[in-house]
């Protein structure tokens, strides 16, 4: 059997189990993107990019940050982001995936323990796979389970640092971590706390700083703010104490051995941070949409979230994909989410609320859901 035969066999297996994925052109009303504040196509971001181009900001960085790729736009963004989020240092990376891969593979050292919520994102798992430290998962949103995992490790002779990893808002469930409890646990056990704010950045907190807003700036907290979701751009910011930044610059393989992100994108993200501050109406309108969707979904007897991420768990993969297709046929871009993205038996419709839709779109979607469920 050739290598390609092996790949084909795997694809056939995915097909038979109803898990094969296909790329499809984007169509229908947007209930699928993470462009929560509707910034991706906004006039202000377009103008910021046009203005940056006009003043000579290059499209490409031309190299890694440690070679000739370190543009003033990168440093400007990192300074502004550190000030905006209230942390000592910031590093801008090409994506949240890359940032998580870097974080877990670079900061925890041999002899440390990564203690992570069992539902952390695939990109965190990527970093954990590359990490020098051992890792152990704990039951979703259960600080007590995390505490017990750390205690067991200490009893077995673990001497290094524990790194507790959570998301402030879970991407496929729309529920929040009990951050204050995890911060207490980190304090009590001398652990570092890593908070992935991919879906909370721009949406929650003062000026959209996220749910970990009160923790940014603490010596033992590192947060990840992605720029491709509510910020409407691309890339990610790691925020933490100054030595974190220095260490990443010196030891972060994904930082050192990769072409720096486009300086134009850095200029766009700076503008997004300004929009977060200047245009609170975007968050207000988004939360009003969320409230409307919650009331309507609850009317169908469905559980809801107070975030822009609503899930309708159907369990069965094929049933979920059929429900998504039925909504798409009616003009609503709702996607079915299957394992391995979510645990087996919890396939679901993921309804994402953004400023790319109106209140009447939300009402119409809930009406369509009522018909098909
Ligand atoms: C929780 C979480 N972390 C990290 C990422 C990766 O971020 P990016 O899309 O910028 O690569 C995602 C993306 O979906 C995510 O949901």
Can you walk me through this structure?
With 373 residues, the chain is α/β, with parallel strands linked by helices. The chain has helices at 3-16, 43-54, 72-85, 96-106, 122-130, 143-155, 179-189, 242-251, 253-256, 263-278, 280-299, 317-329, 359-372, and strands spanning 29-30, 89-93, 113-117, 134-138, 162-167, 192-196, 221-226, 236-240, 309-315, 332-333, 335-337, 347-352. Helix 5 (122-130) links the parallel strand 3 and strand 4. Pyridoxal-5'-phosphate binds next to helix 4. The site of pyridoxal-5'-phosphate has 13 residues, from helix 4.
Write the layout of secondary structure elements.
Blueprint lengths: L2 H14 L12 E2 L12 H12 L17 H14 L3 E5 L2 H11 L6 E5 L4 H9 L3 E5 L4 H13 L6 E6 L11 H11 L2 E5 L24 E6 L9 E5 L1 H10 L1 H4 L6 H16 L1 H20 L9 E7 L1 H13 L2 E2 L1 E3 L9 E6 L6 H14 L1
Helix pairs in contact: 2-10, 3-10, 4-5, 6-7, 11-13
The structure holds pyridoxal-5'-phosphate.
State the gist of this model.
The chain has about 375 residues and is α/β, with parallel strands linked by helices. Helices cover about 45% and strands about 15% of the residues. Pyridoxal-5'-phosphate binds near residues 95, 123 and 196.
Notable traits:
13 helices; seven-stranded mixed sheet; three-stranded antiparallel sheet; alpha/beta; binds pyridoxal-5'-phosphate; 373 residues
């Amino acid at each position: 059997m050739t290598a390609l035969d092996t790949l084909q066999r795997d694809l056939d297996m995915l097909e038979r189990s109803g898990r094969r994925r296909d790329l499809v052109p984007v169509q229908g009303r947007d209930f699928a993107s993470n462009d929560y504040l509707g910034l991706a196509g906004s006039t202000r971001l377009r103008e910021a990019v046009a203005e940056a181009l006009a003043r000579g900001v290059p499209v490409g960085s031309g190299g890694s940050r440690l070679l000739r790729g370190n543009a003033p736009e990168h440093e400007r963004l990192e300074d502004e982001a550190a000030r905006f989020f209230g942390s000592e240092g910031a590093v801008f990376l090409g994506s949240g995936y890359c940032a998580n891969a870097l974080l877990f593979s670079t900061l925890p050292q041999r002899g440390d323990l990564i203690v992570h919520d069992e539902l952390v994102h695939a990109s965190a798992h990527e970093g954990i796979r590359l990490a020098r430290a051992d890792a152990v998962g704990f039951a979703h949103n259960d600080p007590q389970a995390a505490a017990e995992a750390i205690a067991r490790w200490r009893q077995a002779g673990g001497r290094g640092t524990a790194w507790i990893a959570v998301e402030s808002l879970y991407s496929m469930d729309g529920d929040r971590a009990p951050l204050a409890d995890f911060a207490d646990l980190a304090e009590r056990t001398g652990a570092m706390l890593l908070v992935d704010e991919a879906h909370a950045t721009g949406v929650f907190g003062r000026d959209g700083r996220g749910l970990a807003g009160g923790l940014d700036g603490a010596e033992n907290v590192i947060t990840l703010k992605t720029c491709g979701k509510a910020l409407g751009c691309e890339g990610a910011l790691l925020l933490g104490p100054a030595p974190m930044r220095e260490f990443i610059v010196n030891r972060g393989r994904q930082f050192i051995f990769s072409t720096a992100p486009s300086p134009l994108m850095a200029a766009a993200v700076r503008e997004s941070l300004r929009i977060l501050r200047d245009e609170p109406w975007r968050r207000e309108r988004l939360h009003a949409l969320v409230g409307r969707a919650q009331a309507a979904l609850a009317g169908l007897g469905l559980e809801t979230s107070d975030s822009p991420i609503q899930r309708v768990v159907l369990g069965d993969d094929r049933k979920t994909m059929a429900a998504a297709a039925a909504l798409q046929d009616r003009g609503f871009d709702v996607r079915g989410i299957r394992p391995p993205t979510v645990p087996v038996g919890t396939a679901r419709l993921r309804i994402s609320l953004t400023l790319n839709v109106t209140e009447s779109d939300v009402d119409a979607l809930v009406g369509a859901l009522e018909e098909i469920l």
